[in-house]
Amino acid sequence: MLLLVVAVGFVLYEVQFSSAGQPRGQNGLLGSSEQTGNEKEFLDSDHEEEEEEEGDESHHHSHQHGPDGHSDSSSAGHHHATGTYHHGIAVTDSDACSQIGKDILQDGGTVVDAGIASVLCLAVTHPHSTSLGGVFSCIVYNGSTSSASLLNALPREPSPTPFGIPMMLHGLRLLHQNYGHKPWAELLRPAINLANEGFRVDDPLGRALQNNRQFISSSEGLCKLFCQNNNPTGGLKGVGETVTNPPLGAFLEQLSTLYTDSFVTGRLAQSLPADTDSAIRDKFTAAISQNRPDIEAPLTLRVEELTLYTSSGQTAGSILSNFMQKLSENSSSDSLLLPWMGRRAAPVGTNVMVARSSGDLLVLSLSLNSSFGSGFVSPITGILLSDFTQHGDVSHPDFWACPAVLSVGADGDVMGLAATGGSSVPSSLAQVILNHLFLQMNLTESVRESLAHEHSPVGVTQPETPRGTNPPETPRDTNPPETTRDTNPPETPRGTNPPTAVAVAVEAEHIHVARSSGLCCFHEGL
Ligand SMILES: *[C@@H]1O[C@H](CO)[C@@H](O)[C@H](O)[C@H]1NC(C)=O
Ligand SMILES: *[C@@H]1O[C@H](CO)[C@@H](O)[C@H](O)[C@H]1NC(C)=O
Ligand SMILES: *[C@@H]1O[C@H](CO)[C@@H](O)[C@H](O)[C@H]1NC(C)=O
Ligand SMILES: *[C@@H]1O[C@H](CO)[C@@H](O)[C@H](O)[C@H]1NC(C)=O
């Protein structure tokens, strides 16, 4: 299926670029003649999006929209259906966190300010997919200068403990220092309030809890958060119920006023279990301070009018880039065979995307490796530690994410792309690009079709590797008696989730969003 589409895509591509030697500038991938048509398609696709959203209403519109809600676009003269915005957008897998990002944008924050606040919100409210103990990779694109940078908050060595080296905080801090305009403390405030005053279990978290009942009940720290009355045999909190994490609230509060490297490193190391050997603890502390993220040049590929910026290092960015490179060099489908077969499901993850109509864009992919990471929540800092412990060799990514930004042509059109789904991520993104830019499908269709091949059984044949090397909790495979397990859609093995994809396009001062169906990628915009 994929190869077929690639082959067809390339034929169209060839036709387009060999057509009568027209100057590239006027016959780009999104050439001006196509522009109006695409705009119309976008608007049509938004109606479809809207219908779908209405169907999902109960899932993710339970929060109150502020007085500004979606009304901003009407104040700008004309109104667009949900899915198209004039000023800015924040997309996360949590309604509440997208709203927080949108509020920061509205308040004059940069896309990075908004992204940091959204990520911190997720670190409190979505421990199944991220936490302060996790990792991320992101691309920051500056629309005024048309320049992109990369920040990989990923360890460069294996962890000396069964817990992943926490990379999140140093990464967010560095982002803020370079691209933030709002005071740091202001970006922490919403997350502090959620941790202290409580957040509601939303649908994505509710589903993750159900899918991992046994694991949650057997983890003291997770049970404290999510078991009814802190009783491992009393069932888990359901959607709509409130959860607080006071130690995490207190830690974030400290971070808002006192952020020094040594303080943060020390507190992160204190998040290890109390009985951790002191020599191991020292190694962990050293690993945290040595594995400092840097801002780097992203992996960049130019194909005609198209520039792809994606992540390098131990991420899947080079696979995406190679794929696009081969496509541009040789239309023979032989050369387009994907460098892997089957699908390694882990790690699970989540994506955050923030854009402004100026073309500023943040695409950020996060992970704990497994769902709920290691399962160990520090009673001291409230941090859930990850099980992202390995460090593969260069040829084998250990983080199957490739946050991507595509700039198209000279008009400043730009698109952010991200997906989840383990090793299928680069092929999903390549497919979105082909569908939209080469096959001229509308954005919504491009994104949905990109995952079509994932629904075949081949996508889930690979059983998850046993988590034998992991900390405290042991009996994850014992089959819980609950009946929901059978009534739920086919349960994915721990560490896997249905693949998702999301794209945000900024064109002619309009922002369009398209996402796969399901419990992901909720957008709030202005
Ligand atoms: C966009 O794609 C969807 C899904 O295939 C389709 O139903 C819709 O008609 C498309 N819109 C346009 C304008 O082609
Ligand atoms: C984009 O770059 C320009 C020039 O360096 C800078 O002034 C501006 O603040 C940047 N935009 C953002 C959102 O960081
Ligand atoms: C394209 O790829 C095919 C098979 O992978 C190869 O035989 C052929 O020589 C390549 N053509 C060019 C122009 O590189
Ligand atoms: C993620 O977890 C799996 C299963 O426990 C493990 O095999 C793999 O090495 C982990 N990945 C990383 C990067 O630690």
From TrEMBL:
One Pfam family linked to the record: G_glu_transpept
Bias (Low complexity) ranges: 72-82
Keywords associated with the record: Signal
Bias kind Acidic residues: ranges: 46-56
Region (Disordered): 22-82, 449-499
InterPro entries linked: Gamma-glutamyltransfase, GGT_ssub_C, Ntn_hydrolases_N
Top-rank taxon: Eukaryota
Range of residues in the leader sequence: 1-20
Family: Belongs to the gamma-glutamyltransferase family.
The protein, known as: Gamma-glutamyltransferase 6
Organism: Xenopus tropicalis
